[in-house]
Design a protein that fits this description.
The complex is a heterodimer. By secondary structure, chain A is an all-beta fold. Chain A is built from no helices and 11 strands. In chain A, strands 2, 4, 5, 6, 9, 10 and 11 form a 7-stranded mixed beta sheet that branches. The N and C termini of chain A lie far apart (31 Å). Helices cover 0% and strands 54% of the residues of chain B. Chain B contains no helices and 12 strands. In chain B, strands 2, 5, 6, 10, 11 and 12 form a 6-stranded mixed beta sheet that branches. The chains are: A mainly beta, B mainly beta. Chains A and B meet through loops of A and strand 6 and strand 11 of B.
Chain lengths: 115, 110
């Protein structure tokens, strides 16, 4: 148990559906992240929020829309996804963002399948 | 840009065998280096870290030394156990962001 929870753990959705992934951290951290994990590829950083403000957006398609209503919660809203978006989506948090060293704490991920 | 290269897996070993997973990096400046581990069905967990050249990180019998001259951070363990079966990720922090490798799957057989 790392103190970062994600729901749902598994999600199957059609290309026309709208769904949301939820992440919650119980560590009092100030920064939260969304990563995409695909087989045989490096983890892809999608979004970074620091103190509830988005500080990083790595050219992610607009069909992925993040939301950070407070420092403990992070959402990833999904709509009109493509089959190649099927992957494990990981949420992480850290005490701060923008220092030379910081440990990230990861949730267990949501396994997303787009049909 | 900054990058991390890991040996491709899977790596399959017998219990009590010696483990080495190679990791090399490219970075401007002086990044911090990390190994994270992902057990089945879980997220990544920090295994060990090194923040400057010649530092050795260690945890749970695993070790890695920050080698600036060879730009490497190889992970080693003298005697692996079945419970070490997992995916291991090498990573660095460059320009305040984590850069991860592709991960190396380790399978240890009893």
């Amino acid at each position: 148990e790392t103190g970062v929870t994600q729901t749902p753990r598994h999600l199957v959705m059609g290309m026309t559906n709208k769904k949301s992934l939820k992440c919650e951290q119980h560590l009092g951290h100030n920064a939260m992240y969304w990563y995409k994990q695909s087989a045989k590829k490096p983890l892809e950083l999608m979004f970074v929020y620091s103190l509830e403000e988005r500080v990083e957006n790595n050219s992610v398609p607009s069909r992925f829309s993040p939301e950070c209503p407070n420092s403990s919660h992070l959402f990833l809203h999904l709509h009109t996804l493509q089959p190649e978006d099927s992957a494990l989506y990981l949420c992480a948090s850290s005490q701060d963002f923008g220092t030379d060293y910081y440990e990230q704490y990861f949730g267990p991920g949501t396994r997303l399948t787009v049909t | 840009g900054d990058s991390v290269t890991q040996m491709e897996g899977p790596v399959t070993l017998s219990e009590e065998a010696f483990l080495t997973i190679n990791c090399t990096y490219t970075a401007t400046g002086y990044p911090s280096l990390f190994w994270y581990v992902q057990y089945p069905g879980e997220g990544l967990q920090l295994l060990l870290k090194a923040t400057k050249a010649d530092d050795k990180g260690s945890n749970k019998g695993f070790e890695a030394t920050y080698r600036k001259e060879t730009t490497s951070f190889h992970l080693e363990k003298g005697s692996v156990q079945v419970s070490d079966s997992a995916v291991y990720f090498c990573a660095l922090t460059g320009t305040y962001k984590y850069i991860f490798g592709t991960g190396t799957r380790l399978k240890v057989l009893a």
